[in-house]
UniProtKB/TrEMBL annotation:
InterPro entries, per database record: TPR-like_helical_dom_sf (IPR011990), TPR_rpt (IPR019734)
Protein name as annotated: Tetratricopeptide repeat protein
UniProt repeat feature TPR, residue ranges: 224-257
UniProt keyword Signal present: yes
Chain positions covered by the region annotation Disordered: 297-318
Biased composition (Basic and acidic residues): 306-317
One Pfam family cited in the UniProt record for this chain: TPR_12
Signal peptide, first to last residue: 1-22
UniProt keyword list: Signal, TPR repeat
Amino acid sequence: MTRRLTRPLALTATFFASSALAAGSWVSLSDQTILGPEAAMRAQVAKLSGEACKPAVRDFKTPGLAPTGGLNIDEVIRSLEKMLATLAPGDPARAGLEHSLKMAREQKEKGTKVLPLPVRREKGAITFETALKTAEALVGTPGRQATGSTSSDVAAALAAKSPRAALALLLAGHRTKPKDPMTLVNLAGVLTLSGLPREAIAVLDRAAELGGTLPAPGGVPGQAVALTNRGHAFLGLGRWSEAQAPLKQALALAPDLAEARMNLSKALLCSGDVTGATRELRVALRRTVAPESSDLIVTEDTPNTHGDDLKPREQASTRRAARTLFDLSRGATFDLPQLKLPRDRREAISMHEQYEALERKGEGILNGLHARATAVNLSQVLDPGERRWFELVNGVITTSVFEPEVWPSYQSAYAAHYALHKAFRPLSDERNKTIEAGMKGLPSPHTCADVDRVYDDAYQTYMDALRPYVKAQEQAMARFVSARVKFETALAANLPDPKVRAAKRAAIEASAKSSFYGPVVYAAVLISDVPGLFCSGQKVQEVPLELAELPTLDADPCGGLLSTMKMKSKVPSAALKASGLGLSWSLSCKKIDIELSTSSLLGTDWLGGFAQASLDWNGDATIFTGVKAEFKLPKGVPATGGLGAKEGLYIKFSRDGIQDAGMRVELKGSLGAGPDASTGLWEGKIEQEFGIAAAVAYWRER
């Protein structure tokens, strides 16, 4: 995880090209990222300084310098020495190289680690015009022929790890809008990625000179984007201390700007502050800022046990609770059946083979569920954005026992499980001693019936003592399975593809049934493992198990449909005063939404009216009508998304009539990137209702 520090993050194209596009697939900026113990992470971060703290500067004037080698003083000396060795003694270029080599060695003797390059108002700094010429030279003739760029074009170029292509597109955008400062801010981010941090700073200086207010895509201040790109450029130059100020300023404007915090983490590391770097990194690995004290601990205290206790927070891995990111309203019920237990030795003889057969049957059922769970090839079904979302959902499912909705029942189930195992040995030892004493006390001669009575009495005492432990485990395991299945199926319902949902439900069902065919049935085998009758002529009456069928999770909560299907259309109507009349509908697991709206009111293209109807599958409906405003990311940035607001009146209906009415305010926003909109970075929604029913309840409580 901590290797994410090895490369700084550019806020290219108003930073909303996803982290994978902007800085490699190793970057994780999700609120569900699991953080390892801080002490362990600090040790890992400390080991990264040698690899991470290298400038990345491309220098066209020194042909022997590797394009991404940077201006580390040792690398400069080696490159100059190598070039000097190739020149003949009388070569006119030799004197200049020898002088440069002498100066570099003197700089190293003074303690210089990075050969400084002048920027801004420093003597020898490059101008904005020179920076553009250098960028044009880097993209070459084909790149200079680019005529325009869209957000998806730039994002696709970055996704293909081709900053040169993205650079060509942004240069074309600058030629189209030479006075647009945001284009220059975006251009600066890609320049640093291309090994041109000096040029990036010159471009950012020109953007600042143009003045004006930078746009705030997705609500993130454009100035914060510019400051982050400036800090990123200083990192590229190896000027670690100077990088910190603009990055801290960016975070003051936009605390959720994880890219700025990731870059600040590297700046602190390379300045020698390992502790500060680690703490900033831990915050940066999440998209939004929240105290770690609210995280769930997902490390158990004792290895190879279940539900014993949690590690102390400072020694544990942690993540945020699932409710902060996922819809948990569609969980399925799952009740394990009760297993009949033998009342005496003779019933145990009859039922023991049935329990063993149940174990064998369970093994086949679990194998079948496992085959269904692994039958879907995710790479063929899901696009990259959906795959990333799947990994997030699946990661929470695999650690679901740590959620507050599940953890208590998980602890109880395994406390009962270990109590059973702890009680078994002394009870069986006492049973054996009782049998031994009983056999010694039999008269001589004695009959087989006398022996059976000794065994019957000893095993009756043993079974009566063990039965409460067996039932306690069964009941506790049933409660745990019920809570776990409800939680995990609610998470699985967040997956967009019906085939993937079905596969995940099969895996959840297998896990649930393994708790029955495993510890529950095993305990029954344990209590029924008795010797046969010694009087061979006696018959044992067969006792049927009468076991109810275990439930299944075949039913899809989304009815087998894609869970986030949306369609929109707009038909201009000259007959209406409000133009851009549009109809949209969306279908989900929970409801269908239909909206009729206009995109233009009062001569604007962002303010409109709307009327929306929502129908839940349980028969409830809501009508919401009023005014809405929408702000979308501008064209020319490698992202999708924006902000929206609705305000108006609502009425809620049920089968019994009107439930409530009042005023609703709805705010929502989303960010996405990549050639498809599904490569999501963030999506959020806030709803506030001021209803009649709520107001009445409030005043009654007063």
